[in-house]
Design goal:
Blueprint (H helix, E strand, L loop, with lengths): L25 E7 L2 E9 L12 E2 L4 E2 L5 E2 L3 E2 L7 E6 L2 E5 L1 H7 L6 E3 L2 E3 L9 E9 L5 H14 L2 E8 L2 E10 L2 E7 L9 H4 L9 H13 L12 H14 L3 E3 L16 H11 L15 E3 L1
Parallel strand pairs: 1-9
Antiparallel strand pairs: 1-2, 2-11, 3-4, 5-6, 7-8, 10-12, 11-14, 12-13, 13-14, 15-16
Helix pairs in contact: 4-6
Length: about 300
Amino acid sequence: MAKPARTKNSRKKAAPRKIQDTRALWTGQLRLSLVAVAVALYPAIKSGARLSFHQVHAPSGKRIRYEKVVPGIGPVDTDEIRKGYEVSRGHYVLLEDEEIEKVRVESRQTCELVQFVDHCEIDPIYFDRPYYLRPADDMAEEPYRVIRDALRDSKKVGLGQLVLRGREYIVSIKPSGQGLLLETLRFADEVRKANAFFSDIGTAKVEKDLLDLAEELINRKTAQFRPEAFHDKYTEALRELIEAKAKHRTVEVTEEEARPQRGGQVVDLMEALKRSVQGSEGKAPAKSRPRSRAKHAA
């Protein structure tokens, strides 16, 4: 008996890729009206990419430890410590852990999309932290893809609220590659108004020649964003220093070219822009250049 012809929809489905060494921070439902999708939330940012240091007692080589002390009393036991909110200088309202738990926002297992906006409507200052939102099981994949493609086709971002670790967040959800990117947003009272910082900046129009040169320089350096072209030079230098000291070697650090700073050498703005434009001629914008590595001497 001849085997039935394989159609486009009857292709064998690839097994979902396992996410190693990453635990879901939250599992629940992504809801769009009456459509509910089982989803899981994962951190999009790796921890440990930057270096951190401990304080060490140099003569003994042992790590510094801290004791919790009260002025005039000395070290205290952990069970004597309470959380306190300072209502006036030196006066605190003490709260028990049980009291805080009673008012803690319950961890709702649903994130409902209640509004949709253009991505450009959200000021970047409100974005806090990114997460990957993926289907929690095979049954959730189809409605998940429906929401993803609908957001992509409409060029909209979904807004809702979500509780993570007892704290409530505004969240935005948008397509990202094959999946969805969820970003926590800051509330309005967490953001300082810009007017307080920029209100004293003059509003007079700049000279057209200066503006044209600046725009020419911007155009020459415009290219597609490639994050791998940028490097954390400070962390790389620190890693090299640590590696060298661990192997009892010394490191020579190459100093950057001195640049005119405010209060130092006065540089004519027009001349500086002209030289910048001339210096960018014939150079491909935003390409990764070879990094100068620190030289070590034995």
